[in-house]
Amino acid sequence: MPMKIDWRQLAFAVDEDSGNGLIDSRKTARVVKVNTSACSVCTNHDRHTMNVLVQDWEASIGGGSPRKAGLSRQHKQYCEEFVALRVMPVRVRNALRSKFGLDGATLPRLRAVQNFVNYYSKTQLGCNDNYDEILKVAHDMAYSGGDDDSAPFLFTHGKNSEGDLSVGDGSDSESFVAGITSRTLLKRLDRDPDSFIFHLDATFKLSQVGYTMLVLGISDRARVFHLVAFIIISQRFENIYTMALIAVRAPYAEVTGKQFRLRFVMGDAEDGQLNALEKWSNQNQLRNFALHFTTPWLNSRYSRWQWCYVKSGFATTNSPVEQFNRVIKRDYTLKARLKMGLLIKVLSESCFGEGTRTWALKLLPEATTPLMRRTNQRKVTIASTWTQRALYPHCDRVRVQSRLAQRFYIPAKKRTEEYLVVTAQMGWNYARMGHEGQPVAGWLVDVSAGWCQCKYWRKFGCCIHLLYARNISQRVNSRVKRVHVNRSIVRDKRVRRIDDGMTPPGRPMLNGYALAFT
User: Is residue 281 one of the residues assigned to a domain?
Assistant: First the structure.
């Protein structure tokens, strides 16, 4: 239903001029010239207008619009420490409130804190991808000698006409190849090549531009990884890998005065290995050489495992370097993709930390802390039989027999676990390596030579059987440290052997309470 409008009569039967004047008076504005409008002062409807004059006016008043709180100089100096530690802007703002006791009116806006954090990171911390800035960093971090062996320096695959380091912009025509290391890290390679395994692994998701980082290092017979250098590359091509490996040879020769010597090299399986074999098979002089690898080894890309001979104790996979990559992302990059300038700074800090860490290359296998805990927990399920122990209490060889630890099912995890403390537990595949193929009389263990017949010792160079045999033979203490042999004569006749079928000394395990009714 349409809205009802009440009409009010203003004039009736008037002349033309009066009617036009009445209509003009009812208009809100009359466009005649600038700043001219109908009169709003008079109450009659005469035909006249009024001009509005705009004048400039200056004065001071007591109040004004409230200003939003910003960051003072003292606030910025306090925030710089958090920005250097790459703390999130929200946490920086909360720290300001706690430090200076700010309330809702005086606390800076989150947008202001974010702007300061981004500006300070870009201008002072090098958090940018500018080519000129990266080139300046490369020139400043170039190797120049010095007394500090742990100081990191940057190296590239080539130099310009002026003798300075040159880095590309990451394009197809100018690839980016830059590495970071120190003299302390490079000197780790200056040793017998048979005493370590050289690892080369690629890790990703570190930079915002999608560049790949190569981690170069060595592992000893204790399966401990030792860093040698970081190399950042823009593409994953054969020529880029060649440039990266050539780039690290120059600083190594300059620091040690020697050339690279490698015996064992380990890397991940990629398309490059198979592509190289296909390239060799097309050449007549290398066809037989490529056939040697194709027949027993590479029939497919990644679906077939092969056996190879490795000394006991050495790593058989790239697990040491993979664990090191996890530490880099957890402790240094904080699981975030960084700008190139900041990434170079973070990797430099990592090289400095690795260079100052106490380092020693293990030439012999060593027992790990979990293995020692496992030996102490498994003493109940391990028995030994010494040959003529009464006549030769300190003989070198012993038979050690072990049983698998009891396992129980955990419904929450939907799998079984060993009935041991968490720090002494071991996976099923590793646990059965110490039991599979065990003779009826047990494994033969040589305490002096330090070897055992089980598969676990063949792989790691140490096992629970060897630790248990050394412990009862009084060759080592509870911390697997070599001690002097105890040759004192036991004169207590109450000491009985457990393996002769007699009751063991001490309180019986199934004994009840001291006071019990029968």
Answer: no
d(CA 294, CA 278) in angstroms, rounded, equals: 9
Tell me what the mean pLDDT of segment 142-147 comes to. Answer: 83
pLDDT at 226: 92
The backbone torsions φ and ψ at residue 244, rounded to the nearest 5 degrees and listed phi first, read -65, -45
Q: For residue 233, is pLDDT > 60?
A: yes
Query: Which is nearest to 272 in space by CA: 305, 239, 232?
Result: 239
Q: How many residues does the chain have?
A: 518
Q: Looking at the structure, do residues 194 and 320 belong to the same domain, yes or no?
A: yes
Q: Round to whole Å and give the CA distance between 184 and 334.
A: 25
Mean pLDDT of 292-317: 60
Residue 496 clears pLDDT 60, i.e. is over it: no
Residue where a domain stops, chosen among 300, 326, 356: 356
pLDDT in tens, 355-373: 888 778 888 888 888 888 8
Q: How far apart are the C-alpha atoms of 158 and 142, rounded to whole Å?
A: 12
3 state SS of 497: coil
As a whole number of Å, the end-to-end CA separation of the chain is 104
Return d(Cα 273, Cα 411) in angstroms, integer: 44
Residues 39 and 241: their CA atoms lie apart, in Å, by: 86
Most confident of 129-138, 401-410, 473-482: 129-138
Tell me which DSSP letter residue 437 carries: T
* Cα 3 to Cα 17: distance, rounded to the nearest angstrom: 33
Residue 485 within a domain:
yes
Q: Are residues 119 and 89 in the same domain?
A: yes
CA dihedral in degrees (489, 490, 492, 498; nearest 10)? -150
- Amino acid identity of residue 86, one-letter, is R
Same domain (yes/no): 82, 144: no
- Write the DSSP assignment of 362-389 as a string of letters: -SS----HHHHHHHHHTGGGEEEEETTT
Q: Is residue 273 included in any domain, yes or no?
A: no
C-alpha to C-alpha distance for 357 and 185, rounded to whole angstroms? 11
Question: How many structural domains comprise the chain?
Answer: 4
User: Can you tell me the distance from the alpha carbon of 83 to that of 94, in angstroms, rounded to the nearest whole number?
Assistant: 13
Q: Is 333 within a domain?
A: yes
Segment 22-72, tens digit of pLDDT? 777 776 554 444 566 677 767 665 666 777 655 555 556 555 566 677 888
| Strand spans (E) along 54-118 | none
Structural domain boundaries enclosing 92: 73-123
CA 170 vs CA 136, 210, 340, 342, 514: distances in Å? 16, 10, 11, 17, 80
* CB atoms closer than 10 angstroms to residue 405: 19
User: Distance (Å, rounded) from C-alpha 75 to C-alpha 93?
Assistant: 10
Which pair of structure tokens corresponds to residue 17?
Answer: 């001029």
**pLDDT tens per residue, range 397-432:** 888 888 888 888 888 888 888 888 888 888 888 888
Strands 153-156 and 212-219: unpaired
Residue 110 DSSP class: H
> Is residue 178's pLDDT more than 90?
yes
> Could you tell me if 135 and 235 lie in one domain?
yes
